[in-house]
Specification:
globular, single chain, eight-stranded parallel β-barrel, thiamine biosynthesis, TMP_synthase, EC 2.5.1.3, alpha/beta, binds ligand 3NM, magnesium
Length: about 210
């Protein structure tokens, strides 16, 4: 897998919470057309057989554009469908378990919610981290926003080794303050998936971070 994704400022998540299943390919294509440098399939609470079928449909779309296709949570499924990587939360076990199952060139990402967790994920060998939620967000309920004040420190420390994608409640209309706090890479879920013109919104976000 090429490593252009490491330079990317926008990571797109195709989240079944916002996208009806029949629109998954269309929305994935739109995120790719808008320049997303990674795509993740996130389908909380859905069963593996459904996720397997969606992954098989979306993976070729990403392959065509050379963009890594990442599966949230399910290492076995990522191996089975030959996804480009897996994204794991804090409660999803050690990254070494994913590494042991996945081929050497696959991507392993970790959600982190504090500077300590960000440092730990780096030490554990994450290829990238998500850092957030910056703001409270309905997409990930029950978590307080961690605010903007730790971004610069985490970027200086962890971000000099691996890409750090800030996440959680980031929208086009608060992007300027997120950037001013130091963020150069973001994951945006609802503001993109609910946009009337997803490619245009994706480009606007990347321009706002450049
Ligand atoms: N993970 P939106 S926040 C999926 O902090 C996810 O790890 C988070 O969605 C974390 O852009 C989050 O709609 C939700 O707020 C991001």
């Amino acid at each position: 897998m090429a490593s252009h994704w490491r330079e990317s400022s926008l990571y797109g998540i195709v989240d079944l919470g916002y996208t009806a299943e029949e629109r998954l390919p269309e929305v994935t294509r739109a995120l790719l057309a808008g320049g997303a440098g990674l795509i993740q399939l996130r389908a909380k609470g859905r069963d593996q057989s459904e996720i397997r079928a969606w992954a098989r449909e979306l993976l070729p779309l990403c392959r065509q554009t050379g963009v890594p296709f990442i599966i949230n949570d399910f290492i076995d499924l990522a191996v089975e469908v030959d996804a480009d990587g897996v994204h794991l939360g804090q409660d999803d076990g050690p990254l070494s378990a994913a590494r042991a199952q996945l081929a050497g060139d696959k991507i392993v990402g970790r959600s982190t919610h504090s500077p300590e967790q960000a440092r730990a994920a780096l030490a554990e060998g994450a290829d990238y981290i998500g850092f957030g939620p910056l703001f409270p967000t309905p997409t990930k309920q029950g978590r307080p926003g961690i605010g903007l004040e730790n971004i610069a420190g985490v970027l200086a420390e962890v971000g000099s080794h691996i890409p750090v994608f800030c996440i959680g409640g980031i929208k086009r209309d608060n992007l300027a303050e997120v950037r001013a706090a130091g963020a150069r890479r973001v994951v945006v879920v609802s503001d993109l998936l609910l946009a009337d013109d997803i490619p245009a919104a994706a480009r606007e976000i990347q321009q706002g971070l450049s």
